[in-house]
């Protein structure tokens, strides 16, 4: 059934339908209404879960780690400085291979304070080892949350589901709520083989040595570097796993088919714009305008950012006349993170396109369709003369 | 730029329910075949009593641009005292429409060349049995009458769904009373 609600409610509904068992969260704008909605669901009795209010984001992740270690399906959500405050625990969760799901309502990082949207918060955590998925609208938020729980427990790696703060978190639009019975048959109960159990004591994440060594039972145990190698290996494999999960979801619910990148008018395009999140939808209006005036241009939204689906991206962009990367984040002192990753993905291509990088929308600076049109028109008009330095859109110096 | 999107800006005061009103119209429009519906509140700094606005865009097609409305086709004003504080018709398109809760007759309101619709929603809502100051259900009757975009029966159903447990019958009655008592002017 379709309802019209905010992106935060779409996320909360996805968590409820996924039957998360433990939720621990600390409120921070623009994530707050998501956790408020979950606590309402629990309080009213329509959602059977433990809702644990905590005194900080660090504790929220700590509670989720404990719950997940004890075999429960756990969820939290945050934004901006809240995400940074839990950063140490983020690394722990992934090293411990716990299948948590967390929503990040993307917001700019202080100082100076901003409550508005950009994507610097989740981008700054991209190397923690979490899987990062991004949604472009409310339907993708609810669908991605449900898929994320299955992905996390299939590969034993935590998943971040990111969506633009305010632009999606607080905006209302229609979306379909999947049927509970269908979700139950898609997402089996979480029942890990090893979990914290007083009846069956065990060691969890003991100190490792630089080399391998025998465990208490005499069996050879991996050292730190083996454990980290295996994490990386499993992250790379999770690209294929997510592709399969997305196909299953599409078969059952009729939505999906673009697990890694979502393309719009890219098939015959000479020029392709690339970005992450709701901006890729706003760019569709710009693509239509430019198509009307005869420019063969398309746009591609990156849905899975970590692990990076480099093969799919290289396939989609190799041989184009120009690739234009729009980003709401910056690797300070270098360039946009997505720009760097796309260049790297295309390094081995025989037919490398010129690549341009625009930085925009930081701290919620309004992104005008006209500005996007001007930038894209410039880039398509002179693909060869841009250079390797990002240009800024909408800057008022 | 796209011409299939109808842009409606809602002006109210924080706590007055402009967002709820826009959400109800969004539901009514969606139920009437407008598959593209985006409602974006003012972001970040709402305070009770302060002027706020909400953007509602509706179209028969999916809408991709989430940015706030700057050139509305219509503006809806929930509180007549806002007229002294806010330029409610800023950016209003040519042939635009202003829908107003106001105590004075239609001829007393003039916004350039815009078409105007007015109803004393504050008074009619009390007649419907609501406590004084609840105008966000009543104003929807004026919207339905002035725009013809969404049938009043569909709106009333959307109002009853939104106000479950919060006087749904009186809120629905307020909308119907206002619908029947909205004066709609022509283009100047």
How would you portray this structure in words?
The complex is a heterodimer of chains A (397) and B (188). Helices cover 39% and strands 19% of the residues of chain A. Chain A contains 13 helices and 17 strands. In chain A, helix 13 links the parallel strand 16 and strand 17. Chain A starts with a strand and ends in a 5-residue tail after the last strand. Chain B has five helices and seven strands, in the order E-H-E-E-E-E-E-H-H-H-H-E. The longest helix of chain B has 14 residues. The mean pLDDT of chain B is 93. Classes of the chains: A alpha/beta (397), B alpha/beta (188). Chains A and B meet through strand 8 and helix 10 of A and helix 1 and strand 2 of B.
Main attributes of the structure:
heterodimer; A: 397 residues; alpha/beta; Rossmann fold; 2 domains; 7-stranded mixed sheet; 6-stranded mixed sheet; 13 helices; 17 strands; 19% strand; globular; B: 188 residues; Pyruvate-ferredoxin Oxidoreductase, domain 3; 5 helices
């Amino acid at each position: 059934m379709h309802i019209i609600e905010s992106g935060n409610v779409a996320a909360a509904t996805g968590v409820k339908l996924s039957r998360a068992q433990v939720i621990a969260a600390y409120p921070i704008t623009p994530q707050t209404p998501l956790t408020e909605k979950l606590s309402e669901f629990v309080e009213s009795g329509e959602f059977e879960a433990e809702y644990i209010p905590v005194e900080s984001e660090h504790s929220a992740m700590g509670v989720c780690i404990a719950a997940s270690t004890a075999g429960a399906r756990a969820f939290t959500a945050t934004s901006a400085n809240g995400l940074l405050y839990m950063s140490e625990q983020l690394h722990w969760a992934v090293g411990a291979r716990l299948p948590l799901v967390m929503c990040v309502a993307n917001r700019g990082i202080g100082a100076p304070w901003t409550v508005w949207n950009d994507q610097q918060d989740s981008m700054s955590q991209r190397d923690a080892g979490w899987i990062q998925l991004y949604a472009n609208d409310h339907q993708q938020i609810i669908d991605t949350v449900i898929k994320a729980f299955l992905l996390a427990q299939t590969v034993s790696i935590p998943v971040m589901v990111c969506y633009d703060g305010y632009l999606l978190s607080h905006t209302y639009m229609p979306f379909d709520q999947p049927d509970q019975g269908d979700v139950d048959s898609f997402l089996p109960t979480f029942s890990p083989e090893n979990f914290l159990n007083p009846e069956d004591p065990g060691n969890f994440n003991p100190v490792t040595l630089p080399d391998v060594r025998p465990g208490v039972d005499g069996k050879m145990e991996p050292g730190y570097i083996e454990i980290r190698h295996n994490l990386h290996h499993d992250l790379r494999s999770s690209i294929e796993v997510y592709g399969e999960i997305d196909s299953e979801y599409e078969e059952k619910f009729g939505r999906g088919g673009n697990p890694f990148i979502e393309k719009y008018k890219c098939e015959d395009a000479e020029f392709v714009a690339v970005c992450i999140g709701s901006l890729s939808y706003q760019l569709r209006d710009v693509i239509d305008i430019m198509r009307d005036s005869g420019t063969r241009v398309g746009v591609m939204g990156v849905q899975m950012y970590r692990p990076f689906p480099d093969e799919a991206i290289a396939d989609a962009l190799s041989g184009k006349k120009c690739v234009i990367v729009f980003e709401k984040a910056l690797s300070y002192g270098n360039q946009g993170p997505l720009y760097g990753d796309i260049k790297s993905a295309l390094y081995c291509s025989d037919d490398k396109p010129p690549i341009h990088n625009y930085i925009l929308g930081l701290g919620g600076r309004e992104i005008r369709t006209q500005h996007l049109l001007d930038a894209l028109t410039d880039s398509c008009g002179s693909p060869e003369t841009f250079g390797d330095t990002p240009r800024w859109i909408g800057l008022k110096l | 730029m796209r011409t299939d999107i109808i842009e409606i800006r809602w002006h109210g005061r924080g706590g007055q329910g402009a967002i709820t009103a826009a959400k109800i119209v969004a539901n009514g429009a969606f139920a009437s075949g407008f598959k593209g519906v985006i409602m974006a509140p003012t972001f970040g700094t709402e305070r009770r009593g302060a002027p706020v606005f909400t953007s509602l865009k509706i179209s028969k097609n999916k809408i991709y641009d989430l940015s706030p409305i700057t050139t509305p086709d219509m503006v809806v004003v929930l509180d007549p005292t806002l007229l002294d504080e806010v330029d409610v018709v800023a950016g209003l398109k040519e042939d635009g429409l202003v829908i107003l809760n106001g105590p004075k007759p239609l001829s007393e309101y003039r916004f350039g060349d815009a078409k105007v619709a007015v109803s004393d929603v504050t008074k009619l809502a009390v007649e419907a049995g609501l406590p004084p100051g609840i105008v966000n259900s009543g104003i929807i009757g004026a919207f339905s009458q002035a725009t013809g975009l969404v049938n009043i029966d569909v709106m009333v159903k959307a109002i009853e769904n939104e106000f479950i447990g919060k006087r749904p019958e009186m809120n629905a009655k307020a909308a119907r009373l206002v619908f029947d008592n909205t004066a709609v002017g022509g283009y100047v």
